[in-house]
């Protein structure tokens, strides 16, 4: 299974909203990849911004897979990739 960048953003929005007790629509996310830091996200909510590291993104994806697809996925089954053809970050979920 492959999650698009939009689904990863939704996963982060849902995760942050649940943690902060706000609506997912009150969260804005921008994903990034840099050679030095790997995959990161800048998140804006409640008038503040915060940076998430790769492990935070994996956590959000695992929770998203369970809540949206009712699939119990573990960290070693998920790989974040930079898809140059589609110019987006994607997550590959392996069985």
Automatic annotation (TrEMBL):
Pfam families registered for this protein in UniProt: DUF2653 (PF10850)
Protein name per its UniProtKB record: YxcD family protein
Record organism: Paenibacillus wenxiniae
């Amino acid at each position: 299974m492959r999650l698009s960048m939009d689904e990863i953003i939704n996963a982060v929005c849902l995760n942050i909203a649940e943690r902060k007790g706000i609506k997912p629509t009150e969260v804005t996310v921008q994903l990034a990849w840099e050679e030095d830091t790997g995959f990161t996200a800048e998140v804006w909510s409640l008038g503040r911004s915060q940076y998430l590291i790769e492990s935070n993104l994996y956590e959000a994806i695992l929770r998203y897979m369970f809540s949206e697809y009712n699939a119990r996925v573990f960290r070693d089954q998920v790989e974040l990739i930079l898809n140059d053809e589609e110019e987006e970050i994607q997550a590959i979920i392996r069985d």
